[in-house]
Amino acid sequence: LLAYQWLFPGKPMLFMGDEFGQSVEWTADGELDWWLLDAGPYHRGLQQFVGDLNKLYLAETALWQSDYDLAGFAWIDCSDHENCVLAFLRQDAGRRSELVVILNLTPAPRHNYRFGLPRPGHWSEVLNSDAAVYGGSNAGNLGGVVAEDVPWQHHSCSATFTLPPLSVIVFRPERGAS
């Protein structure tokens, strides 16, 4: 859900302790439960994930330059309620920065799942919330996918993806891809 908040149009905001998964409500009478960072891999993994989300947000103008411009956001698929899958495109004004964001909101991995893409070529997987470094199962797309000339979802190209369980994956076209 943090990734959805960062990657959807609008400005992300955290409350104290959210960046490492504090399990109790913050109180002004005490400090954050920093000890959770040493209690196992998941709190430290969430902290790393939020840090990586922040780095991606700063690096990709698609995530902040066109927040309030209709051309900055487009749904790829928002109707697959049976599989609980969403996909959308974020892009900046000059289309120099483009990202495809895919969410699998179920615990079931999905294989060979096709989505339309706005351009052909290699799309690099730049973020995968299911990566082992975040405490996930490390399912993914082996670094990227290749868009084929197969029209799909109102796009001239498409690719098949592996959607890890309960995950957000983000793809960027290779720089210089047509």
Please provide a written account of the structure.
With 178 residues, this protein is α+β, with helices and mostly antiparallel strands. It has two helices and eight strands; from the N terminus they run ααββββββββ. The protein has helices spanning 2-7, 41-59; strands spanning 73-80, 85-91, 98-104, 110-117, 121-128, 144-147, 157-163, 167-173. A six-stranded antiparallel β-sheet has the order 1-2-3-8-5-6. Strands 4-7 form a two-stranded antiparallel sheet.
Q: Structural class of the helices, strands and pairings?
A: alpha+beta
Helix content: 10-25%
Q: Which residues sit in consecutive blocks of at least 5 with pLDDT less than 50?
A: none
Overall mean confidence score, pLDDT: 90
In terms of DSSP E residues, the strand content is: 25-35%
Question: Shape, please?
Answer: globular
How far is the N terminus from the C terminus? 32 Å
Radius of gyration: 17 Å
Give the biggest beta sheet.
Answer: 6 strands, antiparallel
Number of helices: 2
Number of strands: 8
Give the SSE order as H and E letters. Answer: HHEEEEEEEE
Strand order of the largest sheet: 1-2-3-8-5-6
